[in-house]
Amino acid sequence: MKKTSNGWNYLKDTARLNVKTKVYALATVFTALYTVLRLVQTIPMVGVAGARFSLSDVIAPLYGVILGPYVGGLSVVLGTFLAVGFGKPVVFLGLDFLPALANTVSIGLLVRHKWVSVLTLNLLLLFIFLLSPYTSFFVEVQILGNKLLFPFAWLHILAFLVLLSPVGRNAVRWVESLAPLKLSAGLAVLAFVGTMMQHLVGNILYEVVFGQPIGGWNAANFKAVWATVFFLYPWERLVLIVLAVVIGVPLVRTLKKSHLAIEGTVV
């Protein structure tokens, strides 16, 4: 039986409504979740009295995978400001959403196969951080009784090289397969890249807000902080990646089976 033009228009409007309803529902749920986890404080933030990292850092890359760059990014921004409304202290002059936003948007773009855009952004952030007068390019490390100079940003450089390599380009395909081992490996790679980009943005914000002329710190103040952070941040990032994989594998598989998908994502 032939459909009338009005009939086709009705079906298209209904499909469009279903997609919009799904997007609104997911955005609402994940914004609320991000708000709650943003309020859950974890380890202290070195160099910022009273400030702590939030548990929401674990799920930032997963938002890119599940919601994509735009809905995921919006959920991160709204969740951050809602958490502030519920009492979460502001650290970076109201720009506290930027580090996690960079993580989510970058992973969301990778999911949409915008590899060059993410590679360019990663390289730009790395250069900005390394060229800052407040960044310690090398940190003195004692190995077997010998003092050696080691690059502070070695893990950021490694993350960039992973993104540049075939591993970085294949990670999305592994996640899309939903095979448990490949899904785990793909999420680990994406979380590694995303969380290191988040750390870069956080470091840059830290230098801008606490350095001169806003905060009044000089290079010596930052050097003391980076000397401590150097030994801590790899372990912090490792914990975030492991937790992202542990949470992400069942979450992605469940959302895929429930058909709660947003166009341009892997679920």
Characterize this entry briefly.
With 267 residues, the chain is mainly alpha-helical. The protein has helices spanning 5-39, 60-85, 98-111, 115-131, 154-164, 166-177, 180-210, 219-258, and strands at residues 41-44, 52-54, 138-143, 146-151.
Protein topology:
Blueprint: H1 5-39, E1 41-44, E2 52-54, H2 60-85, H3 98-111, H4 115-131, E3 138-143, E4 146-151, H5 154-164, H6 166-177, H7 180-210, H8 219-258
Antiparallel strand pairs: 1-2, 3-4
- What is the percentage of strand-forming residues? 5-15%
- Please indicate the count of domains: 1
Q: Summarize the main sheet.
A: 2 strands, antiparallel
Helix percent reads 55-70%
Question: Can you describe what's shown?
Answer:
With 267 residues, the protein is mainly alpha-helical. The protein has one domain (5-258). Helix content is 70%, strand content 7%. A two-stranded antiparallel ribbon has the order 1-2. A two-stranded antiparallel sheet has the order 3-4. The model has no long low-confidence stretch (mean pLDDT 89).
